[in-house]
Write a structure and sequence with these properties.
The complex is a heterodimer. Chain A is an all-beta fold. Chain A is built from no helices and 11 strands. Chain A has strands at about 5, 10-15, 20-25, 30-40, 40-50, 55, 65-70, 75-80, 90-95, 105, 110-115. In chain A, strands 2, 4, 5, 6, 9, 10 and 11 form a 7-stranded mixed sheet that branches. A 4-stranded antiparallel sheet of chain A has the order 1-3-8-7, with no helix packed on it. In chain B, strands 2, 4, 5, 9, 10 and 11 form a 6-stranded mixed sheet that branches. A 5-stranded antiparallel sheet of chain B has the order 1-3-8-7-6, with no helix packed on it. Chain B is globular, with a radius of gyration of 14 Å. Classes of the chains: A mainly beta, B mainly beta.
Chain lengths: ~120, ~110
């Protein structure tokens, strides 16, 4: 398996533009997580899904952020409209089983810069 | 929710010395405590984990200890090497119906001086 695949790896956009980040989890994994990493706040959990269903989105900063998982092999994180304070590295991660805590496999991350 | 605190934020050691990183957690229901290593510009990767039914686990130069009563756990790296230089994150799970999610500490930047 190629691991968790994220795209784009880098995104530079202007304030007010829509940003869509994409993630393909490892095949067979039931849980998918979106994290945001900044120097100031470290790794923050934004939202996670189990079997494509959002379980907890309490970490989503505000209504400008939304996430979907239409099927087991694809998820998106959308920011609309984007703001400079959204600049960060966004990681997607997946894990095998929802009922048994185990390793999270992270993607390479999407580095977002909002000017 | 779970709150994980990690200390120190930076740590410098001489090559060959030991390094210790400490974390505390708040949720007594947490039962899974992994440690991740993140090299510069790379993804976090699991290096060792421990579950609440054991007090210590070793893997070559790396060990983790867990004190459930005090709600703290530590990472120990012996005989440090320059390639151990990275940011290390501790984490604790919070089980909710449907999934296990991880809460991470703020990270420790370890520098091993040759």
């Amino acid at each position: 398996d190629a691991g968790v695949i994220q795209s784009p790896r880098h995104e530079v956009t202007e304030m007010g533009q829509e940003v869509t980040l994409r993630c393909k989890p490892i095949s067979g994994h039931n849980s998918l997580f979106w994290y945001r990493q900044t120097m100031m706040r470290g790794l923050e959990l934004l939202i996670y899904f189990n079997n494509n269903v959002p379980i907890d989105d309490s970490g989503m900063p505000e209504d400008r952020f939304s996430a979907k998982m239409p099927n087991a092999s694809f998820s998106t994180l959308k920011i609309q409209p984007s703001e400079p304070r959204d600049s960060a590295v966004y990681f997607c991660a997946s894990s095998l089983a929802a009922s048994w805590a185990g390793e999270l496999f992270f993607g390479e991350g999407s580095r977002l810069t909002v000017l | 929710g779970e709150n994980v605190e990690q200390h120190p934020s930076t740590l410098s050691v001489q090559e060959g010395d030991s390094a210790v990183i400490k974390c505390t957690y708040s949720d007594s229901a947490s039962n899974y405590f992994p440690w991740y290593k993140q090299e510069l510009g790379k993804r976090p990767q699991l290096i060792i984990d421990i579950r609440s039914n054991v007090g210590e686990k070793k893997d070559q130069r790396i060990a983790v200890t867990l004190n459930k009563t005090a709600k703290h756990f530590s990472l120990h790296i012996t005989e440090t090497q320059p390639e151990d230089s990275a940011v290390y994150f501790c984490a604790a799970n919070q089980f909710k119906t449907g999934a296990n999610n991880l809460f991470f500490g703020t990270g420790t930047r370890l520098t091993v001086i040759p």
